[in-house]
Structures are given as structure tokens and as C-alpha cells.
Design brief:
The complex is a heterodimer of chains A (145) and B (673). Chain A is an alpha/beta fold. Chain A has helices at 12-24, 37-45, 73-81, 100-109, 121-138; strands at 5-8, 31-34, 61-64, 91-95, 113-116. Helices cover 41% and strands 14% of the residues of chain A. In chain A, strand 1, helix 1 (12-24) and strand 2 (31-34) form a beta-alpha-beta unit. Chain B is built from 20 helices and 23 strands. In chain B, strands 13-12-11-16-15-14 form a six-stranded antiparallel beta sheet. In chain B, strands 2-1-5-4-3 form a five-stranded antiparallel beta sheet, with helices on both faces. A five-stranded antiparallel beta sheet of chain B has the order 7-6-10-9-8, sandwiched between helices. In chain B, strand 11 (298-303) and strand 12 (310-317) form a beta hairpin. In chain B, helix 17 crosses helix 19. Chain B is elongated. The termini of chain B are far apart. The chains are: A alpha/beta (145), B alpha+beta (673). The A-B interface holds A 11, 13-14, 16-17, 20, 66-67, 95-102, 117, 119-122, 124 and B 450, 453-454, 457-459, 461-466, 468-470, 472-473, 476, 494, 497-498, 501, 505, 508, 512, 516.
Chain lengths: 145, 673
């Protein structure tokens, strides 16, 4: 079964560019998208609008933006790492911020990787290739259920 | 041999039967320590004893049978007439003082005490003269010396008999008593000086005579207003007194005691001021010290300045609610004017005041019966005033007033000290508050800057990424369907987006550098240069640049990451501003000083007009068009900010033969990390 990606990002342009890069990198993994931090928590917890696990399956990788409405990516990360079992989920921060404080805080909260959103589609393609190669071909995934 | 000596006399004890009296008497005469001799009527030596021979300095044999003229030629004119008088008069001459020389000690005048007796025969006629001679030369010498000694005594020396009549007065004593010695001897002390009756001296003399006990007395002799020391030695027959005037010493001692007291009070005032934590404890401590010193029950310390008609109460002791620390008092006009002319005001009996002022009425109500106000002057200016009060009528003699004046000077200085100290304290507190405010403002500004950077980082770049990324996607996905003009526009959107992204990135890097906590340590310039070169490798290779390092590089005190960034920016700058179609040639060298060192980065590029040498280190200053030399204009600003954050300097100079020489200056480190 294909690994599932959950992308938490409020910027539709970024979502479009990421989806395009993943497609171009021949990564036809199912990509589920939530547009704010609270939605990300609900999706992961399987509550509210995301109670149906058939339609909203638990992901194998979370691509998490930091600056989002309602709950920030760092808050989502903190919440996730406090959960039993599902707290093991690999999380890659994918954000526009290069601020040292953001990077350090993300790692302190348990991020597995920190990638700054690139400026051009070519670079996005590189990032997509790297993510696929590392997290789905190289990395060994934990039990999540 | 005795000329007249019966061999036996009636009454001679049986034990001496058979001894002649003449033989016994001769032995006694020989042993006596007195000179004894018998001369006949011709004044020839008939008999003499050993002592007499010794006095004359001649043997017994040299005497016997010879005349006085023959034996003692020097002395003969003195003694021969005496012998003759005795021979002719038949009366003894006793205790006669004789002086002259004998052959025993030629040239040495000696003294004797001699007695001469006529010696009669059986018929009652004077047959011979006997002489008894006592040598008194030494005794006389001692007596003379004693006299001289007594005269030499610088003290007065007098002796009295039991009825206090002068027996002896040395010159010094006579001078002190103001009368010649002859007018004193034999006169009664109390007849001559009736004013001495009733003085401590009279009492001491009487006691010494009565108790036969030596007394040493130091006292003031009121009739003359002078101080004397008396050493009184009694004996059975009177008093001997050594006395000297000690008025000068007593004055010095009194001065010293006053000084000691004054210093003691000043010391306790200064102690109170130094130990006090703040102005109120200093003031009340100083006032308490003054109160103790003057045995006063009430005290008020008022701070004020010249020209002011009122002052602030700084400290209060013993008073009721009228006087409260911090409250204002207006000085009564007379006190104020007294203060201005630096005069002490004394009210010895407040109850006797006909028209007491309001303040005095308040003091009366508090139980004050006497008070004094003292102006406190510092360098001629009025610093305040001191009030002391006593619960009973109190008189202040000149000495106490003098002391009060001295103390007021010390207190005035202390008051000035207290005022200064409280001013300094107030200033310090104000400064501390300002620093706190500024620090709070700064951290607020820093927090705002952080929030701003974060906003720029996240929110400003997100739409830019969209513009740039989507324009690029348009070119890639729909490029075929666009006209050449459409494709050109899309490319320009992409390029503008990239430029703006670089600007934002540069701005963020600059502001990160400005705010970051840069921990400095020893850093090797060579390693920092290597790190910068390898990060810049792509650009160096693309431009075909050559970086040459002249000589070994030392160590500096710097923040490693920042130093690498600074060097990287300088190298990148040197690569970028090369002449068109020329390979950049960059020379790196160090100019090492004792405390600081300069790292030079020299290029043969287009150079910089010295007029702009300052400006190029400011953020977003660009000297060239975007077409020829694209860039954010932030690189050298980062160099400047980074170096100055590390405590260094930077600059640029034109290079001979074209190009620029950039330098950064940093403190020298002794060893590398």
C-alpha cells in the first residue's frame, strides 16, 4: 500500500506548487491537505470532520508549515508528540521561515527534519525528489497503530 | 711626753696599777682623729700626734724641737699671733676658722677649725699652748656646693620654721615672691602674704606640718591667677618647699582637653553620618551625638539655605509634635539675622522671656527652659541651624560656647555631606529607574523586531514564492502556448521575484546579525578563510577567480560563523565587481599589530570612488545598475555590522593600479579554538 502524505499548509499557492513538484517527481502518493493547525490536529486525531478513517486515513508522513491560522505548526507538533503511538509519526517541517528561533524550537519539539520552502519550481522538484528518496525509500517507518 | 703628768693619781683603778697616766694619755692622743699638739713658750713643738703630723705633711721628728716658723713658714703669720695671745692672755681661743697651706699640700688652700688652750705649770703660770685642729676643707667644700646647688635649682626653694617664718629662700623663690631674700628671712609667711590664707596651699602646709607627711600639690593660686606645683617636705623643725609655676603647662593641658573633647564630639558626629544608611538616620545620629556631648535634652537640626526664611526639620530629639522631621519651620527674625551674622543665640532662662515667640511658646510647652541656636555655616553660606534645649535654666560659659562653635562647624560639614549624599542617592535611583525603563523599552523593541522579522520571513515571502513559482510553472507548463512577449514577461516576473527574495533574505540576515548574541573566542583566520572559500566555491569556479593568500594568517577574537560570513561577503564582493571579461584576482593578507590585526582583501576590479567609501557599508546602498552588477546591496552592510558587533572596524581604500583594498580589523587572540 502506498504511503500517505498529510500536508498542513494554509497557502493555496504553496499547496499547488508542492503537489505539482510531487507529481513531477513521479511520487503518486496520496496527498491529503488541511489548511490550518486545528484541522491538522482534528485529522490526526480522527475527530470532527475527519472521523471517517476510510476517507481520511492516518498518514505515514506529515509535511507541516509553521505559520498557519488557529494553531501554528509548532503547536500541532507539540500536541502530536504528546500522543501515544501516533506521536511517532515522522514530521518534516516545510516552511518559509529560516529564523533560527523557529528551527531550534521545531527540533526541540521533536521535528524529524526542517526544510525551507524553495523559491523556484526547480528547487521544489529537488525537495520532492529528496523527500521521496529519503522518507519512502531509505527511512524505516515506525508502527503507528 | 706630757710635761706635767703625775705618774699616779688618786682614784686610778686597781686594774691599771703600774701604768702611768702619761703613757695612756699619749696613746689616746696619738689615736685621736683630731690634730693635737703642744708648743712651749718659744713656740717650739714639744709634742704632737700622728694626725697633726699628717695635716702638716711632715714627720714627727721634723716637728719636735723646732719652731712654728721653721716647720710651717706659710701658716706661721696666721697662727703665731694666736699662740702668743693664748700664752700672754692665758685664755683659750676655741673654734677658730683657719685657712692656709701646709707642706703636706703645697698650693692647696685648706681649712681647719682649731682651738687653743693655755697649759699651766704647778705654779699656775702658762708654760705651754695646746692646740686641737680639725680638718674641715672637705666639709666646707660640700657646704659651698650645697649652697650653689640650692641657688641653681630652677624651682623656688624655701624653708620655713614651725611658725611658718622664712628660714631660707633661694633667688628663684625670691624672684617669684617678688621680694629680696633679706626682706623675707625671719618674716612670717602669712604676715607677708595674708591673701594665701584659705587657699589650698595653706591647707596643705598645715596638714604637712600636722601629719609630718610629704605632699605634692598642683593647684590654682587664685590671688595671682596662676598655677603652681608644690612639693612639701615637713620635718620636726619646719617645712621645706620646692615650688614651680605651671600656668603654661596647665593652659596647654586645658587646651588639649578641650581639643580632645571637641574631636570626640566631631568624631561621634562623623561616625553617625558615615554609619547612617540614609539622610534621616545620618541626621538623627549626628544630632544625638551633639545632645550627649552638651548634656542637652532637646535638639532640632534644621536644613536651610541663605536667603530662605524657613528651613526643613532634618532631625528632632525630645520635642513634642510641633517639631516634626520633614516639616517646615520659619525662623524668628532675630534668630535668622543672628544666623546670618554667624552668631550663636543663647536664651539661658526661657521662662523669664517677656514676649516669647510662637516657636518659643511651643518649646516652653515641651518643657524647654533654656536653649541655644547655632548657625551652621559652610564656606560662609548658611547650611542650616542647630537648636539645643535644656529642661532647666542653663548657663553656657565661654568655653562651652567656643566648643559649640567648633562643633557647629563640624556639624555644618556633616550636614553638607548628608545633603550631598541624599542628592547622590536620588540621582542614582533616578538613573537606575531610567536604565530600567530603557532596558524595558529595548527589550520591547527587540521583541517587536523579532516579531517583524518573523512576519517578513513568513508572510512576505509566501506570496512572493507563489508569484515566482507560478510564473515559472506557467513557463514550464504553458510556455508553448505563449507568445515570445508573453514568455518574456513571465521570465521577468520570475527574475523580479528572485531579486525580491534575495533582498528579503539579505535583510533578514542583516537583522539577525544585529540582534544575535555573538559569543566571541579565538578563531583562526586561515580556517575561517578556508570555510568561506569552500562555501563560495561555485561562484569562484564560475568566474574563474584566483584567490591568493600572502603569508601565514594568525588568530583573532571573533564569532566564528559571523567571521566566515564576513570573509565570504568580502570575497564574493571582490569576485563580483571585477572588470568585464577579466578573471578576478584576489589577494588576501594580514597586517598584524600588537593588540589588533588587519585582514586585507584586495582586488583588481572596478574600484570604488573614495567619495562613496563610507556609503557602501550601509544597507541597500548600490553604486551600480542592476543590469551590470546585480545584487541585494546588503553584503557589505553585513560585513560592517558583523565586524562592529565583534568589536572591530572595517574600511576600504583604493588600490594603486586599480581595484579596491577592503580591510577588517579585529582583536588579536593568543591561541586558536
Amino acid at each position: 500500500m502506498m504511503p500517505i502524505i498529510l500536508l498542513a499548509d494554509d497557502d493555496p499557492d504553496d499547496v499547488l506548487l508542492i503537489r505539482r513538484a510531487l507529481a513531477r517527481a513521479k511520487m503518486d502518493h496520496p496527498v491529503h491537505v488541511v489548511n490550518d493547525g486545528q484541522a491538522a490536529v482534528d485529522y490526526l486525531a480522527g475527530t470532527g470532520a475527519y472521523a471517517d478513517r476510510a476517507r481520511h486515513p492516518f498518514p505515514d508522513l506529515l509535511l507541516l508549515d509553521i505559520k498557519m491560522p488557529r494553531r501554528s505548526g509548532l503547536e500541532v507538533l507539540a500536541w502530536l508528540r504528546a500522543q501515544p503511538v501516533m506521536g511517532r509519526l515522522p514530521v518534516v517541517m516545510l516552511t518559509g521561515s529560516r529564523e533560527t528561533a523557529d528551527v531550534n524550537r521545531a527540533y526541540e519539539l521533536g521535528a524529524n527534519s526542517y526544510v525551507v520552502k524553495p523559491g523556484s519550481p526547480e528547487e521544489y522538484l529537488d525537495v520532492a525528489h529528496a523527500l521521496g528518496l529519503y522518507w519512502f525509500a531509505t527511512n524505516e517507518s515506525p508502527d503507528l497503530a | 711626753m706630757w710635761p706635767v703628768a703625775p705618774s699616779r693619781l688618786p682614784g686610778t683603778p686597781e686594774t691599771l696599777q703600774g701604768e702611768t697616766l702619761a703613757a695612756l694619755l699619749d696613746q689616746l692622743g696619738q689615736a685621736a682623729p683630731l690634730g693635737a699638739t703642744i708648743l712651749d713658750r718659744e713656740l717650739r713643738f714639744a709634742w704632737l700626734n700622728r694626725t697633726m703630723a699628717d695635716i702638716d705633711g711632715l714627720s714627727m721628728e721634723a716637728h719636735l724641737g723646732r719652731s712654728v716658723e721653721e716647720v710651717l713658714p706659710d701658716l706661721a703669720p696666721t697662727i703665731v699671733p694666736i699662740y702668743r695671745r693664748v700664752l700672754e692672755g692665758g685664755e683659750p681661743i676655741v673654734e677658730l676658722a683657719i685657712a692656709g697651706e701646709t707642706p703636706a699640700r703645697p698650693g692647696d688652700r685648706r681649712a681647719w677649725r682649731a682651738s687653743y688652750y693655755p697649759l699651766r705649770g704647778e705654779d699656775g703660770t702658762v708654760r705651754a699652748v695646746g692646740a686641737i685642729v680639725l680638718e674641715v676643707t672637705e666639709l666646707q667644700r660640700l657646704e659651698i656646693e650645697r649652697q650653689r646647688l640650692l641657688e641653681r635649682i630652677t624651682d623656688g626653694f624655701v624653708s620655713f620654721d614651725r611658725d611658718m617664718r622664712y628660714r631660707y629662700v633661694n633667688e628663684r623663690a625670691a624672684a617669684m615672691l617678688g621680694r629680696p631674700t633679706r626682706d623675707l628671712i625671719g618674716q612670717g609667711y602669712y604676715e607677708l602674704f595674708p591673701e594665701a590664707v584659705g587657699t589650698p596651699f595653706e591647707q596643705a602646709y598645715a596638714r604637712a606640718l600636722r601629719d609630718q607627711e610629704a605632699i605634692i600639690l598642683e593647684d590654682h593660686y587664685a590671688p595671682w591667677d596662676r598655677w603652681f606645683e608644690n612639693r612639701i617636705f615637713p620635718s620636726e623643725d619646719g617645712l621645706t618647699i620646692l615650688f614651680s609655676e605651671i600656668t603654661g603647662r596647665k593652659r596647654v593641658e586645658a587646651d588639649m582637653a578641650r581639643q580632645r573633647r571637641r574631636l570626640g564630639i566631631l568624631n561621634s558626629i562623623h561616625h553617625a553620618v558615615l554609619m547612617g544608611q540614609d539622610a534621616p538616620t545620618m541626621s538623627s545620629g549626628a544630632l544625638a551625638a551633639v545632645l550627649v556631648a552638651f548634656e542637652a535634652q532637646f535638639g532640632v537640626l534644621i536644613g536651610g539655605s541663605p536667603g530662605e526664611t524657613s528651613g526643613t526639620i532634618l532631625a528632632v530629639q525630645g520635642h513634642g509634635p510641633v517639631f516634626q522631621v520633614g516639616s517646615q519651620v520659619s525662623a524668628p527674625p532675630d534668630v535668622a539675622s543672628a544666623a546670618l551674622v554667624a552668631r550663636i543665640t543663647v536664651v539661658e532662662d526661657l521662662a523669664a522671656r517677656v514676649e516669647p515667640t510662637a516657636l518659643e511658646q511651643a518649646m516652653l510647652a515641651d518643657g524647654v527652659r533654656a536653649y541655644v541656636t547655632v548657625p551652621l555655616l559652610v564656606e560662609g553660606g548658611l547650611a542650616g541651624s542647630l537648636g539645643l534645649g535644656w529642661s532647666a535654666a542653663h548657663s553656657l560659659d565661654a568655653e562651652v560656647l567656643g566648643l559649640l562653635h567648633d562643633v557647629s562647624e563640624g556639624l555644618a560639614v556633616a550636614l553638607a555631606h548628608i545633603v550631598l549624599r541624599s542628592q547622590v542617592q536620588a540621582h542614582t535611583e533616578e538613573l537606575e529607574e531610567r536604565v530600567r525603563d530603557r532596558t524595558a523599552q529595548l527589550s520591547e523593541i527587540n521583541a517587536e523586531l523579532d516579531a517583524f522579522s518573523s512576519t517578513v520571513s513568513h508572510d512576505l515571502r509566501a506570496p512572493l514564492r507563489g508569484m515566482r513559482g507560478l510564473a515559472q510553472a506557467l513557463l514550464e507548463d504553458e510556455g508553448d502556448r505563449l507568445s515570445p512577449i508573453g514568455r518574456d514577461y513571465a521570465r521577468r516576473i520570475v527574475a523580479a521575484g528572485r531579486r525580491m527574495d534575495e533582498l528579503i533574505e539579505g535583510l533578514l540576515a542583516y537583522s539577525r546579525l544585529a540582534r544575535a548574541d555573538l559569543r566571541r573566542g579565538p578563531v583562526s583566520l586561515a580556517r575561517a578563510l578556508d570555510a568561506a572559500r569552500s562555501q563560495l566555491e561555485a561562484e569562484i569556479r564560475a568566474r574563474g577567480a584566483r584567490v591568493e593568500v600572502a603569508g601565514p594568517l594568525g588568530n583573532v577574537v571573533a564569532h566564528r560563523t559571523t567571521l566566515v560570513q564576513v570573509i565570504l561577503n568580502l570575497l564574493s564582493n571582490a569576485c563580483k565587481f571585477s572588470r568585464p571579461d577579466e578573471r578576478p584576482e584576489i589577494l588576501v593578507r594580514e597586517e598584524r599589530g600588537e593588540e589588533t590585526t588587519r585582514l586585507w582583501v584586495e582586488d583588481r576590479g572596478i574600484g570604488i570612488d573614495p567619495a562613496f567609501a563610507e556609503r557602501i557599508f550601509r544597507p541597500f546602498e548600490r553604486l551600480h545598475g542592476m543590469e551590470a552588477y546585480p545584487g541585494s546591496g546588503i553584503g557589505l552592510a553585513i560585513v560592517h555590522k558583523g565586524v562592529s558587533r565583534m568589536g572591530g572596524h572595517c574600511g576600504v581604500e583604493p588600490r594603486d593600479g586599480g581595484g579596491s583594498r577592503f580591510w577588517i580589523e579585529l582583536p588579536v587572540a593568543r591561541r586558536a579554538r
